[in-house]
Amino acid sequence: MKRRDFVRTAGGATAAVAASAGATGTAAAQEVEPDWPSAASGGNVGSYTDARGQDEVTISVGAGSSGLAFDPTLVWVDEGTTIVWEWTGNGGDHNVVAQEGPASLDSGSAVGEEGYTYEYETTGEDAGITHYACVPHTAVGMHGGIAVGEDVATVEVGGANTGWPEDIAYVGVPLHAHWVGISAILGIGLTFVFTFYMLKYGESAHTGHGGAR
């Protein structure tokens, strides 16, 4: 192989390895979500909405196929946001009552009227995560949660851009994304070493073999 052809080939291989490393970085990107109490995150439907930046957000009361859920089940809002719980009329009588956390949610007695609403404007005193429930239906999973403000406990979830898992499985062994990145960097380094060797000794070795014929 001629020197310029080899350089062109090696350069292409290096670019491919670099592109692979870039893809790995994308796959490793993470989203941040509040660290919900298990009782709240285990609520029926289990939907989540990041409503930060919105002045008002609506949560359906009596959602789901059986009318025994809040939807979205989990909501992250700013301080000063108005949360409106709106009854669907399904699933019987419901209410909204805080179970744990700083927000003092309490819609009063359970009602079943479609279109009934309960409004709550969050303040700095509500900062954090509050788990709430429909008291008549706590045993059947009608739970929800609100997170207020930026000062809340969070966890990283999923791949933000690709949906890839945090651990990439390879031949049955979990492989963290940062190890894939390290492997890509080592691959680039080895490519440069091999390129240097071939440029320095490759043509002389080729010439020597040609002269012996």
pLDDT under 50 segments (min length 5)?
16-21, 23-28, 160-178
Tally of separate helices: 3
* SSE run: HEHEEEEEEEEEEEEH
Across the major sheet, the strand order is: 2-5-10-9-7
Largest beta-sheet details? 5 strands, mixed
Characterization of the model:
With 213 residues, the protein is an alpha/beta fold. Helices cover 31% and strands 29% of the residues. The chain is elongated. Residues 16-21, 23-28 and 160-178 have low confidence and may be disordered.
In short:
This protein is α/β, with parallel strands linked by helices and 213 residues long. 31% of the residues lie in helices and 29% in strands.
Descriptive tags:
3 helices; four-stranded mixed β-sheet; five-stranded mixed β-sheet; 31% helix; 29% strand; 213 residues; single chain; alpha/beta; 13 strands
Question: What does the secondary structure layout of this molecule look like, with pairings?
Answer:
Elements: H1 3-28, E1 30-34, H2 38-41, E2 48-50, E3 56-61, E4 70-71, E5 74-77, E6 82-87, E7 97-100, E8 117-121, E9 128-133, E10 143-148, E11 154-159, E12 167-170, E13 173-176, H3 177-212
